[in-house]
Amino acid sequence: MESSLRGHAHKYGKNVDTDVIIPGKYCNIVDQTELGKHALEGLDPEYVSRMKSGDIIVADTNFGCGSSREVAPIAIKASGTAAVIAKSFARIFYRNALNIGLPIFESAEAVDGIESGDEIELEPASGIVRNLTRGTEYRAAEFPPFMRSLIDAGGLVPYVESRLAAGR
């Protein structure tokens, strides 16, 4: 994982489901760059035009609920979004995000202390979340070393490919 991630927060509420993260009409798009152009279109049609590469989604509870479409975290990552911080994630979204190498962090305190537009710095290895705008710091749940390796590699497939190439 990068030593730190830095961007501005885009804050959303509870139960952001995969249908609004990437509406069904885009689920057949294979090109990830094209898919990323439609991230959060069902919730916030201006997200992709307003966000800058490296920005961070901040959401309340149960982020990524709904259908198990793997394209939801792919669309977020392909949009240039650096990470997602939420109070909690739907289980299948959590796993899909890790499988494709999208950094996600759980921290109720950070979510409560961050507003849209705040400048955020994340240290993925330690789970430290800094709100640079407000001068506050929080801790997100840390990933075990194996999961950090998986995210560092860019997801499950690149991780397995590198392990196979190394003969491990």
Written overview of the protein:
The structure is a single chain. The chain is α/β, with parallel strands linked by helices and 168 residues long. Helix content is 33%, strand content 19%. Strand 5 and strand 6 (128-131) form a beta hairpin. It starts with a strand and ends with a helix.
Descriptive labels:
168 residues, alpha/beta, Aconitase, domain 4, seven-stranded mixed sheet, 8 helices, 7 strands
Give a short summary of the structure.
By secondary structure, the chain is of the alpha/beta class. The protein has helices at residues 18-21, 32-36, 47-50, 71-78, 91-100, 108-113, 145-152, 156-165, and strands spanning 5-12, 56-59, 83-86, 104-106, 119-123, 128-131, 136-139.
What are the SSEs and their pairings?
Layout: E1 5-12, H1 18-21, H2 32-36, H3 47-50, E2 56-59, H4 71-78, E3 83-86, H5 91-100, E4 104-106, H6 108-113, E5 119-123, E6 128-131, E7 136-139, H7 145-152, H8 156-165
Parallel strand pairs: 1-2, 2-3, 3-4
Antiparallel strand pairs: 1-5, 5-6, 6-7
